[in-house]
What does this fold into?
Amino acid sequence: MMVAAVTALDCNGRTLTLGRTAVMGILNVTPDSFSDGGFFLSREQAVAHALKLAEEGADIIDVGGESTRPGAQAVSVQEELDRVIPVIEAIAKAVSIPISIDTSKPEVMRAAIHAGAGLINDVRALRETDALQTAAALQVPVCLMHMLGEPRSMQVNPVYTEVVSEVRNFLIGRIEACAAAGIPRERIVIDPGFGFGKTVEHNLALLRHLQELRGLGAALLAGLSRKSMIGALLHLPVDQRTSASVALALIAVQNGARIIRAHDVRATCDAVRMWEAVYPQQGNMT
Ligand code: 7PM
It folds into this structure.
């Protein structure tokens, strides 16, 4: 079944246009990302970084306070609230683009949306208790990501019989769970979750066959920026993965991604704009 294109998402009063590829700038507010000790200082730094991302061309800023890094420990609700809510309040005043909240916790979803965020980006695809109901009640778009297992152990030995169809079937199941909870397809973004319980070969297969995740009536998001597959293939540290990240982002766009999650927003925007100059019509299909 071919479903009509989603052309824009209403993110709590701010619009994310999907007529062209959108770039989601990454703003981590974990202690390892802005680690200058004092909370006020780190908040100032986070706001400054958000302004930089917007100035570089980001269409949305993704704020995350839970480290989902492989092997990471769980973070308490209060800890996550303390990290993200003051930052969201401040950047909602400083920038006019939509803000997404990278969380799996219903309490954090609620507080973040009330603080000015407009999209829920959940690496657990609303599988936590009450997450589906909370997202439905908040009436904001959601990004459903595939992850095999939990961050703590997901990279230990990920096994699939057929990774692309398993990820696709998982996402179809979560879209159906959303529908049952009252979240319409037009409000859903889907994401194969590169690096989340995947070997390098799994990641490459998902990128090569990303087209198979189109046609589900949900916009496709790809997050490949600086990920360890680049480190594994090129032996580069995280601060030298921009070119490879941009290359992977373009392949994702070519294969149907409508939103690219990226650290290096300027480089990503430049590349995506060039791709769109070459292929001006492609932006109209889900
Ligand atoms: C350490 C390792 C820190 C990995 C952070 C990460 C995605 C996401 C993340 C993604 C969506 C990162 C990840 N990745 N949300 N959150 N899709 N929707 O590389 O690929 O930023 S956290």
